[in-house]
Amino acid sequence: MISIKNKVALGKMREAGHLLASVMRDITPAILGGVTTKELDAEIEQRMRLAGLHPTCKGFKGYRHVSCISVNDSVVHGVPSAAIRLQPGDCVTVDMVGAYKGYHADMARWMGYGADWHDHGFKINVHLSGKGGPAKFLRTLGRLSTEARNLITIENDELTNGIDVTLAVADHVALVLDIHHHWINTGEYITPTDPRAQRVIESWRGVRPTLHYSVSREDCLVDHSRTVKPDLSALLAQGYKKQKLRAHSDFYWNEAVNDWALTFADQFNIQCEAKGKNLARDQLYQ
After folding, report:
1. Residue 128 neighbours by CB under 8 Å, 6+ apart
2. What integer pLDDT is reported at residue 1 of this predicted model?
3. pLDDT recorded at residue 196
4. Is the dihedral of CA 160, 165, 167, 173 positive or negative?
5. β-pairing, 210-213 with 174-178?
6. What's the Cα-to-Cα distance from 19 to each of 15, 103, 122, 234, rounded to whole Å?
7. Which helix (H) or strand (E) holds 104?
8. Which of 7, 52, 157, 282 has the most C-beta neighbours closer than 10 Å?
9. pLDDT the model gives residue 257
């Protein structure tokens, strides 16, 4: 059961979040080469208690630490250890939970990314949703850290915020071009030379841009030819619904759509959004 919080409770939750954020900010300088993750955990505990926070994780089901710390490509929720010693240039994920006046704040931060524009090829990809549109997003963007602003990307969606909308923020964040979403939104098979696609490339400021690719599901377009690109207008006239057509396929079954998607490969990194993931990727490039 979810309880509805009143203004007093929301205020305590907000204060817990602010205190935990201050701890996260203060421990950043302690993330240095030569420090073990166990030593870093001890530093986090000291700063949490000085801030008036109770470290929620410590003691939970026998857990002996106040945080989870992962280094580079290790799986999240890594256990602090004296055997794991940080090296210069390591990317470190710190995850911690603190309680204040009975209310808990949970925060994770990936340190080492965001010093430069989309360094290490990393991105935080979101959709431009909500009633405020680009204007509200840009107001919110200004409240984020420099690291977050350097990493965030905006992707066009299938229904309301298509490419023409997301281009409004292209001077501020990098854009991800989702060509399946664009087809669902407009019925158009956009080309790499389209000025909008070129504007997406420019938004990455010299970093190789990212493109998302999928196609409508195999069990939706069961009898459709593999060598003909689906025509959205014709499909809608036949009674197909966008809600069904926008779902990602398991594999890349349509050869004509694949050929079209691969025309972007010279200028974009293509991220495969088919359910088959790496198997679908291998199929696409065969």
Report:
1. 134, 137, 154, 155, 156, 157, 161, 165, 166, 169
2. 61
3. 98
4. negative
5. parallel
6. 6, 12, 28, 56
7. strand 103-111
8. 157
9. 98
Tell me how far apart the terminal alpha carbons of the chain are, to the nearest angstrom: 50
Q: At 93, give phi and psi (nearest 5°).
A: -100, 125
Cβ neighbors of 87 (< 8 A, separation 6 or more) are 33
Q: Is the separation of the CB atoms in 114 and 148 below 8 Å?
A: yes
Amino acid, res. 173: V
CA-to-CA separations, 78 to 28, 41, 64, 73, 244, in angstroms, rounded: 18, 11, 13, 11, 39
Low-confidence ranges of the chain (pLDDT < 50): none
Residue 230, pLDDT score: 98
210-213: strand order across its sheet: 124-127, 152-155, 174-178, 210-213, 269-272
Separate counts of helices (H) and strands (E) for the chain? 11, 9
Calculate Rg over the CA atoms of the chain.
23
Task: Calculate the alpha carbon distances from 126 to 97, 235, 240 in Å.
Answer: 24, 29, 28
Q: Token pair 């409004």 is at which residue?
A: 168
Helices (H), 157-215: 163-166, 179-186, 195-203
Sign of the four-CA dihedral 217, 218, 222, 225: positive
Do residues 92 and 107 lie in contact, with contact meaning Cβ atoms separated by under 8 Å? Answer: no
Which residues touch 115 (CB under 8 Å, ≥6 apart)?
A: 147, 150
List phi, psi (to 5°) of 168.
-65, -20
